[in-house]
């Protein structure tokens, strides 16, 4: 892969009010790209960018959008095409976490996190893919987590299962869009020093069961998250670099040494179990 300098792309980015999303659109605008910022709080996004003395704000289209609402997403894509004329890079960055053992979760808890983390991604892809396919070019960056192939412990099932879903969506989407010269890269984030990992974007069960000690886990996250290794500025820069790279992009990338270590341990354990149970596995063949 070879990096190139192309600062005239149109980016469609979700989850831009804080964290990685905000850092990314700041970087994009400073480098002359045109950006559609998808957010529930466009005024907040614009105010934060002004505080950072962000350049080229005239190239920003901040649209109040509910990604869980199909029509809202459809209108935001339509508006992007009307204003910017095209879409080159789609970044599915919106999401939030939820803590609780399976039996502590209500049906509403599960439905809400899937509405944002999974169905919201489907909405965005469903309405942006036609433009990428028709123009025979583009890039989709789906932001997931090492939780999408591993588990960091109990009480994360709601969040982890949505990330497993994103991985599955990405794997299929890669095959579907590849014939049209559209790349899809799955990003497995490790811990990042943002409000997300410090608990700002993590909700928790309202019906804790004492035996599971979920409240202790919440306090632990708040305590250790400020020491997460991931730098959101470097994450944003790496995402930007991927868009300016020639050659075939990887189907997935892990960001952060913690994500690498967890991925490596997960794959090694899975392979070991696979071989240990090879005879039993083969025994079910006709």
UniProtKB/TrEMBL annotation:
<dbReference type="Pfam" id="PF00106">
    <property type="entry name" value="adh_short"/>
</dbReference>
<dbReference type="InterPro" id="IPR002347">
    <property type="entry name" value="SDR_fam"/>
</dbReference>
<dbReference type="InterPro" id="IPR051911">
    <property type="entry name" value="SDR_oxidoreductase"/>
</dbReference>
<dbReference type="InterPro" id="IPR036291">
    <property type="entry name" value="NAD(P)-bd_dom_sf"/>
</dbReference>
<comment type="similarity">
    <text>Belongs to the short-chain dehydrogenases/reductases (SDR) family.</text>
</comment>
<protein>
    <recommendedName>
        <fullName>Short-chain dehydrogenase/reductase SDR</fullName>
    </recommendedName>
</protein>
